[in-house]
Design goal:
Elements: E1 7-11, E2 14-17, E3 19-22, H1 25-29, H2 38-50, E4 55-57, H3 65-79, E5 86-91, H4 100-114, E6 121-125, H5 133-146, E7 153-156, H6 160-168, E8 173-179, H7 190-198, E9 201-205, H8 229-241, H9 244-261, H10 265-274, E10 279-285, H11 294-298, H12 307-317, E11 355-359, E12 362-366, H13 370-375, E13 380-383, E14 386-392, E15 395-396, E16 400-401, H14 407-424, E17 432-439, H15 445-456, E18 462-467, E19 477-484
Parallel strand pairs: 3-4, 3-10, 4-5, 5-6, 6-7, 7-8, 8-9, 9-10, 17-18
Antiparallel strand pairs: 1-2, 11-12, 12-13, 13-14, 14-19, 15-16, 17-19
Helix pairs in contact: 2-3, 6-7, 6-14, 9-10, 9-12, 14-15
Length: 493
Amino acid sequence: MSNQPERIELAPGLEVSRVITGLWQVADMERGGTLLDRTQAAKMLVDYAAEGFDTFDMADHYGSAELISGAARRMLLEQSEQSPARFFTKWCPEPHQSSPEAVRQGIAERCERLGVETIDLLQLHWWSFEHPGYLDVMDELMRLKQDGVIAHIGVTNFDADHLHVLVQQGYEIATNQVSCSLLDRRALGDLSHVCLERGVKLLAYGTLAGGFFSEKWLGAAEPTDIPDWSKMKYKRFIDVVGGWSVFQNLLACLDRIARRHGVAIANVASRWVLDQPAVGAVIIGARLTENQHRASNSNLFGFVLDENDQTEIAKALDGAAMVPGDCGQEYRRPPYLTASGDLSHHLSAPPPFFSAVEKHGRMLTLSGSVWEEIAGHCRAMRIGNRILVSGTTATHGTDTVVCRGDVRGQTVYALDKILAAIASLGGAPEDVVRTRIYMRDADEWEPASRVHGRYFGDIRPANTLIEISRFVGDYEIEIEAEAVVPEAGDTAA
């Protein structure tokens, strides 16, 4: 069997190595303020490309990674004008940066730093779905795709429900980059189903758990001081799935399998992820100018995990808990499984999407709809510690109906809007005590109920589902809610 890197077409015209070289560690290496030697780092990327690892992933906040990649691209073009190398980057705006001008400015900066006229794959990360500006950003990214500024659009850390909203809206999404590993198997459930149904490929990061999946940690004592950002993050994942003993049991299993095949633990961990049906490629990080793992990565393609291997791995995983929630939630709600355990090294807390005003001694949230003035209603109201949210539909902006004809997508969008309204009045999801769901077609109760369960499964508000024979407009569902914000010092009975 050849050890040449496997290749895959993620989207028409976008053929890449199935091991993508990740450059997130550039930011970690430059934390002290000293930038990497750009020429030396770029030469290392050229060396990776020469051995078939010619696909590179970075982001706007990965230090000088885009500048290094731009230098590497120029070196590769000097060698051959037909270089197959591909450079993926991400734009991670704060929620207020959703205007067409902000999007174009953000993407223009990516082009300038990479030294390209067309970005191979531009991936969007969105911090809070309670702010619906991601749809406005996607509108502009689609226009930039039509203009030739972006060749393909991807997203990062989108859960199954919000990826469903995007593809149902007709956005052309090639990839979704998410955490996926033997520690974190969230992506292998509903998200994989959406991807397989809609032709979206998963790009898996965290496959090696920041380097914890290696012989170095087999039988080692649990670390207490971790200066590396990546390891700080994935130690939190280890803790969540059961702790160090559970991880050591899994590591010992991988070691036995690796020895049988004459490869490394890291190879077995990565091969397992690559074998998952929705996964297009794994992203393995490189500490540029310090060390190279191309020879080890090549071993990924020289063996196959057989049925016995898969059975052993499945048995080892029986003792490991699942990471809670869906992909990307570690960036959007506690517990934050990030390097610092919060988002302080990424951004300040995003402001509520809606703003509240005081009228007649009550706090009101207004969405800006002209009908609030004409018909005399508000999006939500707070009286004392009670928050009442009006019937909410999947209306984006003033008149765009999101996910026409699709109950799942409309339920997702409406619940996001409800939570945004509650947040603007000082409440939180766990304060919701009652919801009512009104549906055009009662036969479609299941997708709405499943979405409701993903939002409120641990909160369990009282709920009523009602069939309405006719809605005004192209809506399949309308939802209202009530929340009670605990008074200071309140405790559960």
